[in-house]
Design a protein that fits this description.
two-stranded antiparallel ribbon; globular; 11 strands; single chain; Rossmann fold; 9-stranded mixed sheet; about 190 residues; alpha/beta
Length: about 190
């Protein structure tokens, strides 16, 4: 019943794991170089891809996205990696920023349950998803970014540009709790 948290070398990856601990959600933080076989041995119910400095430093994360048929949540770089793995476009943001923004929630089912119509989040906009893959739909946007969150139309694969693990995202814990419910419903 564990969620694997993939450390993509971002400054908040350990905080993701700690946030899950505080919420009593079983999790394990692993390096992004861990083999698929080692992850399978953990029999995870979900996968969270943490943030990081660059697409080039993401280790095996894209392979995890393509291989695993369990719920996946990509945070910041993890969000961008999901888009890239499915054929979307990621590039430098027009408004590079690292600040609190208000996102508009277009779809409050599953991941955003109980959070609509908007939410204050701490978001990094150095790189961002510019176009989503055809199998995806946008869940949230902001005045800085058209794709603050998306979801695969047929799978429980979600991406969020923002950081739910920091206190600057006051209701970030709800995102983790909702993702855990999604994972539990697949077991």
């Amino acid at each position: 019943m564990t969620i694997i948290v993939v450390n993509n070398k971002g400054q908040y990856n350990h905080r993701i794991a700690r946030s899950l601990q505080y919420l009593k959600i079983p999790s394990k933080l692993i390096p992004n170089t861990t083999s698929i076989e080692e992850i399978e041995a953990e029999n995870p119910i979900g996968l969270i891809l943490g943030g990081g400095p660059s697409l080039e430093g993401a280790g095996l994360s894209e392979e995890y996205i393509k291989h695993f048929d369990i719920p996946i949540l990509g945070i910041c770089l993890g969000h961008q990696l999901i888009a890239k793995a499915y054929g979307g476009e990621v590039s430098t943001s027009d408004t590079e920023s690292y600040a609190q923004v208000k996102i508009n929630i277009d779809n409050d089912e599953n991941l955003f349950e109980g959070l609509a119509p908007d939410m204050d989040v701490w978001s990094s906009h150095k790189d961002e998803v510019k176009s989503i893959p055809k199998e995806f739909e946008i869940l949230a946007s902001s005045n800085l970014c058209d794709v603050e969150s998306f979801k695969h139309k047929d799978k429980d694969v979600y991406g969020i540009q923002f950081h739910p693990e920091v206190h600057h995202t006051p209701k970030g814990s709800v995102i983790f709790e909702n993702f855990y419910k999604i994972c539990q419903n697949k077991v």
